[in-house]
Structures are given as C-alpha cells and as structure tokens.
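Input.
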Amino acid sequence: MIAPRILKAVLVLLALVPRLAWAQGGGEEGGGGLYDINTGLSTWTLIVFAGLVFLLGKFAWKPILEAVEAREKSIRAALDEAAQRNAEAAKLLDEHRAQIADARRQAGELIAEGRAAGEGVRKSIEEKARVEGQAIIERALSEIEREKESAIAELRKESVDLALAAASKLMQQNLDQPKDRALVERYLAEMSAEKSKGARA
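Output.
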C-alpha cells in the first residue's frame, strides 16, 4: 500500500536530518546558543520538508483527497436519497389522506342514501297502510250500506206483510194480490221519502 511506504520514507528522512546536521557541523559538540542559526541544519530541514511535501503531494494527498471526495459524494448521495424518500413519504401521506377523505365522503354519501331510502320506504309503507286502511273503511261502509239496505228491504217486506194481514183482518178478505201489494209498497216508499226530506230539513 502507498501509506506505509510514505510513512517509511518520512521516518528515514527524519532520521537522516540529525546525522546530516552533525556531519555539517563537523561532529563538534557544544554548538551555539539558543538563538544561533545553523545554516546547514536549516538547509537540510528545508530540503527534508520540501521532500516530505513532494512525497505527500505525489503519493498521499491525492488518495486522501479522493477518499474525502468519495466520502463527501456518499454523504451527499445519502442526503439526496433521504430527501427523495422524505418526498415519497410525504406524497404517500398526501395520497393516504386523500383516500381517507374520499372514504369518509363515500361513507357520508352511503349514509345519506340509506337515510333517503329508509325515508322512502317509510313513506311507501305509510302510503300503503293509508290506502289499505281507506279501502278497508270503504269496504266496511259498503258492507254496512248493503246490510242497511237489506235490513230496510226485509223490514219493508215484513211491514207490507203486516199491513196486508191487518187490512185483511179489517176487511175480512184476502188482500194478497199483487196489485194490493204494489199499492202498499208505494205508500210506504212515499212515507219513507217524506221522512228523509224532513230529516234533511
């Protein structure tokens, strides 16, 4: 790998700097003071630094920058994917809300239709019951009228028979002839009509 080679080269250069500085100074000990400038040491330090910068620029910075750029791209891609997923989730949420609203609207319509149908059925049942009740009342009235007419006819017949029997006894003769019967029935009808007129007045 490139990184271990660069590290070895840097260590070798750092190890060579004191030897080169010692060789420049002639191996003498007890150099100058704290603020004395050793031009040989400075020169070799600059050379080593320049070499280190060159090696780092040649072998290390490019892979480091590529790794940083790749990391940045992966982070950007992850952020873009997260944003896309958030947008999709928001879209799905909106669709879900729209579906819920539509379902509520349909449920309201079904409830309204059910109420209207129930109201129609109720009105139909009431109308049918009213018609049937009216028909029952009319049939009952018709039956009562027939019974009334039958009773009146029966009463009239009996009245005629009684009147004929009474007249027969009074006159001591048989008045059961059709002519006499018609006369009595006409008389009773006239009396009934007069009574009806008097009741209406």
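Helices lie at 2-24, 39-171, 178-200.
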